[in-house]
Specification:
The protein is an alpha+beta fold and about 950 residues long. It starts with a helix and ends with a helix.
């Protein structure tokens, strides 16, 4: 069982052990949507300062001062080659080659050289390479080589030994190879065979570059060779077979590096001792693995043209990222450089790295048993300690030894009071004291009683008080007893102590206890027992946002992370100096939200904790930066009116018409092409705060109101400090009716009106009496009208009451008639039944007399007259209006309409008319006929409208 566990542990450690490249470079990607050009970049050239020229699928792509511009030929010809020679840009394309020059307006214009040939038909030739040699310019295609003499302006064809695959300058000479032939050297416009190169007939030479000591490096389809001018030898270099297997396509050399571009696996970067420094590919930030072109800029950094995209590789950047190379070590929370080995604490465990002589880190391994969340790694008295999720450990010989049993070792710090040999630790639960054992190792001694809560932040003030940042509840100040084994007093810091709201952030700046809420830093004032705003750093910040962390960076130096910027301050008493500023977006970094941290490893190296690895900042490289301090230049503004008219604003202090109130600004920087420039801008007169850092070089302000404005823009230099601000003042005039002259006229008119008012005021007074009398008369009229309205209202109310009374009488009368008729109908039915039963016993004389009395009672005309009177009073001459509209209606029809107007059913109407329900339906049918109603019209709804 023990052997199995030992084997499992070894296997686990081996699984986490891997090598990483010894160096890390900054790779900037310029994507197709940014350059607005084609995917493929076949060749690259530099003017030695601020401009980069790229032979692109769509044309000549120019990068100048952080801005791309594309120059095309008719038909969007694919450019295969570009060169910058004697202040001219030469390009080669399909069946054409020539150069570009600026015209009087500063626009690039193309001049073809191919048309100067005696026979200008290039017969499907494409120009793949342009070089300068001995004062002449040569254009290479697979079929031939063309020469151009700038002095005589002659353009001619060179005799060639056959079709040639490449043309390369190296070591002051120019080399080529005929297909399935040896290498040749260009001399006096003739190609001379290179002795001893016949063995290359079965290989395709891809590129030739110079090496120190007059050597050449030759890359072919099958190998890499060194050539000393007499003999060829195989180049012995690390990973050579892998390089060849991935199809060499191009090579280039810097002062201290050899770079080989391949078709299948990106770049292989070697030092001059042929040691592999790095393999850059899509796994570590290249956009594409197929390398088409390479160019070294004046600062020995590298431009890379690929089958898809354009990249810039900075070799001398002070910031080296270790992310992609680390596979997946998780988010980094802690680090320490100990005995030339780097220890990294992540959310997955503790890893350690070796450090080479150049300060680079490689070969990571997991410390056995450290899997899980790591909160800190610190050195105390020559030994390394770490706080993990399940306790606190000392690290010796890459092994963990547990010294603290309390879970969640957030922090561990030396207690600052004299004569106290003690470390204190904040954890998930207790505040724990550590003391040294006989072996000189700090180990857990006892928890301090009187406070038990999870606390992430831990600081001490000059009075020996312990400050804790609770993980949730806020800030606490703890006053321990003399023995430091008990907390005598716990004070929660809230609104009573000057804080606008609760916070758990806790920092120490110099000797100050600090916290942060919103945009404001607060400093503890021990005399007044209050937190007060601290503004000492405000003038240096360029970003809004809360201070996420303040941590020591060395003697009298502090890292302050605020918003989207990281600042290094040197603070000595009240003297504050900003030494460096880093924007995480410059390097595409993402810090761990809520755990932002930079850890000093030594005097020069600082580790940036990232959510996907870490980065190393070398301050010595910052101090030795060879990049010039850039400047920012604002180009002429473009003003647009609401009608779309455009005005170029070339000179500052220009006055614009109120119509030209949409203004667009463009700007550029003298920063080295390749290093992404970041800018801040604001429009004074409209904005009080700088906008956030951006790579944009253009902005537009819409519908600006009249007034004075100053557009300002600034950049951040290679030293991390903000450049001089470039400004462009201008103003927008108000419309004519708001101008100064009109304002004076308005004042004059106002004074005139006042004088006229005083002149006429006396005339108005005599009218006031008349107005009073007139007003009294109007009041009397109003009162009379009001009284009349009141009388009318009372009459209306009385009339309404009468109508309501009549309606009630009508309803009562109708119900009485219905009950009476129902009763008489019942009696009549009973009489008829008795007649049937009794026969002659009930004489006809008496039967008919009784029946007639019943009939007369049912069809009582007097009752109908009363009903008609009540109905007209309640419904405003209903019968009259109905009869006028439909004169063909009979009295029976009118009676039926009255009952329908009362919304009675056929069953209720039947006794009132002394007919059956069926008879009612038949009358309704005849009524519809007389009213000429369609089947879609509802009879009752129609009657209700009268």
């Amino acid at each position: 069982m023990r052997r199995f566990l030992a084997f499992l542990l070894v296997a686990l450690v081996a699984d986490f052990s891997t090598g990483i490249a010894q160096v890390s470079y900054q790779v900037s990607n310029y994507r197709v949507n940014e350059s607005r050009a084609g995917n493929q970049n076949w060749d690259i050239a530099s003017d030695g300062s601020q401009q980069i020229f790229v032979a692109n699928n769509y044309g000549l792509l120019v990068l100048e001062n952080s801005n791309f511009s594309l120059h095309e030929l008719p038909g969007r010809t694919i450019f295969r080659s570009v060169a910058y020679i004697n202040e001219k840009i030469f390009t080669g394309s399909f069946e054409d080659f020539g150069f570009w020059e600026e015209d009087e307006s500063g626009e690039l214009r193309y001049h073809s050289l191919a048309t100067r040939l005696e026979n200008p038909d290039l017969n499907n030739d494409e120009i793949w390479k342009i070089i300068e040699h001995q004062g002449k310019v040569y254009f290479h295609s697979f079929g031939t080589v063309y020469g151009y003499d700038p002095e005589t302006e002659d353009v001619y064809r060179l005799p060639t030994p056959g079709s040639m695959m490449f043309l390369n300058p190296a070591g002051g000479k120019v080399y080529t190879q005929a297909i399935q032939g040896p290498m040749y050297r260009l001399q006096d416009d003739a190609f001379i065979p290179v002795e001893g190169s016949n063995f290359l007939q079965d290989e395709e030479v891809k590129s030739v570059i110079s090496l120190p000591d007059s050597l050449l490096l030759i890359g072919t389809s099958k190998g890499l060779y060194r050539y000393d001018g007499d003999t060829f030898t195989s180049w012995q270099a690390e990973n050579k077979e892998e390089v060849v297997r991935n199809n060499i396509n191009t090579m280039i050399r810097t002062e201290d590096k050899i770079i080989i571009g391949t078709i299948l696996n990106g770049l292989y970067i070697y030092d001059l001792n042929f040691q592999l420094l790095k393999n850059l590919n899509t796994q570590n930030r290249l956009q594409n693995n197929t390398i088409l072109s390479l160019e070294v800029d004046p600062f020995q950094n590298l431009w890379v043209g690929m089958d898809k995209g354009l990249d810039y590789i900075a070799f001398d950047t002070p910031v080296h990222s270790y992310r992609e190379e680390l596979e997946d070590i998780g988010s980094v929370y802690a680090a320490a450089l100990f005995n030339s080995e780097l220890y990294i604490g992540t959310n997955q465990g503790i890893y350690w790295f070796k450090q080479d002589e150049n300060g680079n880190f490689y070969d990571k391994e997991l410390v056995p048993g450290s899997q899980g969340q790591v909160w800190f790694i610190k050195e105390f008295d020559g030994k390394l300690y770490s706080g993990l999720n399940d306790g606190t450990y000392v690290i010796e010989n890459k092994q963990l030894q547990k010294i603290g049993m309390v879970h969640g070792g957030y922090n561990l710090k030396a207690y600052p009071k004299e004569n106290q040999d003690l470390l204190l630790q904040s954890t998930y639960s207790d505040l724990v004291a550590y003391q040294k054992n006989e072996s000189g190792i700090w180990e857990q001694a006892y928890p301090l009683s009187g406070f038990q809560s999870p606390a992430r932040f831990l600081e001490f003030d000059h009075m020996g008080n312990i400050w804790l940042g609770h993980t949730v509840k806020g800030l606490f100040r703890l006053q321990p007893n003399i023995q430091l084994n008990k907390i005598d007093q716990v004070t929660e810091m809230g609104s009573n102590y000057g804080l606008p709201q609760s916070t758990n952030k806790l920092f120490k700046l110099d000797t100050r206890i600090m916290t942060s809420i919103g945009d404001t830093l607060y400093q503890w004032n021990a005399i007044d027992e209050q937190f007060v705003p601290y503004t000492g750093l405000d003038e240096y910040f360029t970003e809004k946002g809360s201070v996420a962390n303040i941590s020591p960076a060395g003697q009298e130096q502090y890292w302050v992370i605020k918003g989207e910027e990281i600042n290094l301050f040197e603070i000595y008493f009240n003297s504050i100096q900003l030494r460096y500023r880093l924007l995480p977006q410059m390097y595409d970094f993402k810090l761990i939200e809520g755990y932002e941290k930079i850890i000093p490893l030594n005097q020069n190296l600082h580790l940036i904790c990232l959510d996907d690895g870490f980065a190393i900042l070398n301050m010595d490289m910052v101090e030795r930066s060879k990049y010039p301090v850039p400047s920012v230049d604002i180009q002429p503004a473009v003003a647009t009116s609401s009608q779309g008219e455009i005005t170029m604003v070339k000179a500052p202090d220009t006055e614009l018409s109120y119509r030209d109130n949409t203004v667009e600004f463009n700007w550029s920087t003298s920063q080295v092409a390749g290093n992404r420039a970041f800018f801040q801008y604001k429009l004074e007169g409209l904005e009080t705060e700088w906008n956030s850092w951006t790579t944009d070089t253009q902005t537009r302000y819409l519908r600006l109101p009249p007034g004075g404005y100053t557009f300002s823009v600034r950049s951040i230099g290679p030293n991390g400090l903000v450049t001089e601000t470039a400004s462009f003042p201008f103003s927008i005039n108000p419309p004519w009716y708001s101008s100064t002259q009109m304002f004076i006229l308005y004042v004059v008119l106002f004074i005139s009106l006042v004088l006229m008012g005083r002149f006429y005021i006396s005339r108005k007074r005599w009218k006031e009496l008349g107005k009073d009398l007139e007003e009294k008369h109007r009041k009397m009229v109003r009162d009379r009208e009001k009284a009349e309205k009141k009388i009318i209202k009372l009459n209306n109310e009385k009339l309404q009451e009468k109508i309501e009374h009549r309606s009630a009488q009508l309803a009562s009368n109708t119900m009485a008639m219905m009950r009476k008729n129902n009763l008489l109908n019942t009696i009549q039915q009973e009489l008829e039944k008795q007649k049937e039963d009794l026969g002659d016993q009930l004489p006809d004389k008496y039967y008919k007399k009784l029946n007639k009395l019943i009939e007369d009672g049912i069809e009582d005309e007097h009752e109908w007259e009363i009903f008609e009177q009540l109905y007209n009073e309640a419904h405003g001459d209903f019968f009259k209006r109905l009869k006028e509209t439909y004169p063909q209606l009979t009295p029976s029809d009118l009676r039926l309409c009255a009952y329908l107007r009362m919304n009675l059913s056929s069953k209720e109407i039947a006794p009132l008319l002394n007919i059956s329900v069926r008879g009612v339906e038949e009358r309704r049918y005849r009524l519809r006929k007389r009213l000429d109603l369609s089947t879609d019209t509802n009879l009752t709804e129609l009657i209700m409208t009268f």
